[in-house]
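idk why but the lab printer keeps eating my pages so im just putting this in chat instead. protein + uracil:
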Amino acid sequence: MSHHYPTLESETDFDGWRQSARALILNNISPSDVTWRVQGNSPELFEPSAIAPPSNPHGIFTVPAKFVELAQSTILNRDPERFALLYRLLWRLRGNPDLLMVATDPDVARIAAMAKAVRRDEHKMHAFVRFREIGQRETSRFIAWFEPEHHIVELAAPFFAKRFADMAWSILTPDACAHWDGDAVAITAGVSKAEAPSEDRLEQTWRSYYASIFNPARLKVKAMQTEMPKKYWRNLPEASLIKPLIAGAERAASAMIANAATAPHKSQKRQTPITKPKHSASADTIQALREEAADCRACPLWKDATQIVFGEGPQHARVMLVGEQPGDKEDLAGKPFVGPAGQMLDRALEEAGIDRSKLYVTGAVKHFKFLARGKFRLHQRPNTSEIRACRQWYERELRSIKPELVVAMGATAAQSVLGKITPVNKTRGRLIDLEDGIRALVTVHPSYLLRLPDADARAEQYQHFVEDLKIVANLLRASNAA
Ligand code: URA
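predcted complex ->
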């Protein structure tokens, strides 16, 4: 039996792979008789060269749509075995069309992991590309240098075309470069790092922005490094701030520890320890959920968002605060309630006597939904199918945290928490029993207060919001004293 050497035009030649794979399968050529190669890659290694490719007989061979989707992502993985592995899976699918459902099958698991690594890399590229402006005004262009782990430039480029539609930009990488002039994305060959500009005024803007969103009170170095792995640091202007900011946060923490603790007021002393229900061994930790959710594709909102904005707060928080969806600032920072609504919330919590760092804060929908208008991204309310698609994460957060109280802020959060459309005014300020002894409180969303045009109404509604939060504060105090 002769050996076959299908040759692809490039590392990402999915159509070439598909065509060859189809011809090979229809000619009944076993995976062990096939060696895949890419044009221009060390041809001397493949000396038995030009055996005629198998003819392309007419025949029908259908594969599940899921396989095509998986293969399109997997082809972009840098693993040199991907073409052969995909062909082997295709070969095996012939006899077992349900094979893709068998998650424990080694071939299925490996391909799924490769596809996932590609999606993760795409997500990292969306989050970590930093443009630098070169040239003067009318002729200026924004250039970014990025080193992706996989062959994802073409896949990731439409995101930047949408996000930065009104600027001329190029993203340079060692594999391929993407360029945008307001019309279409063009892909050219890769370049060396020397061709990317390194310093300019945007760098300082990015650094100040990053310093402003950095909150030492919520610093978790490990989680931060998982989200922003060190290998990306060298291309990020803000990276030079990370070390000093961490050092500063550590100094602040040491100063707090050095100060002698004051005895708690008698009424705040816990007489009996509060025993929270034990977390079942199968409940995921928030960190595990956060990692899993990073690749969520349950609704289309991930496509335009920079990243998922998952909940944040202590694993054993007693109160969970649920908002609507991240806004512009949250989408960029990857943290909930750090923009204007977050500032309003922080103020009201403080006035109600609640320490935000003790709460778990999340949103009903975890990707930013917006309408791009030039430089601006206008907030769009999530619809019911998006809220439903995202509810799995809220449910799993709830199972993981097991809070005593869930505070739903606004109609979207109330819909997710109560499981049905419920006008805020109908339920506001009342404690509602959920399952497992957890209670819910519905109130307005802080951005509702920001939108009120009349200053008096705003002040009045703000006070009402603080009063609702005081119910939370009282409840916490009461269960502390119990
Ligand atoms: N609004 C929300 O509901 N969540 C955020 O994180 C920010 C604004």
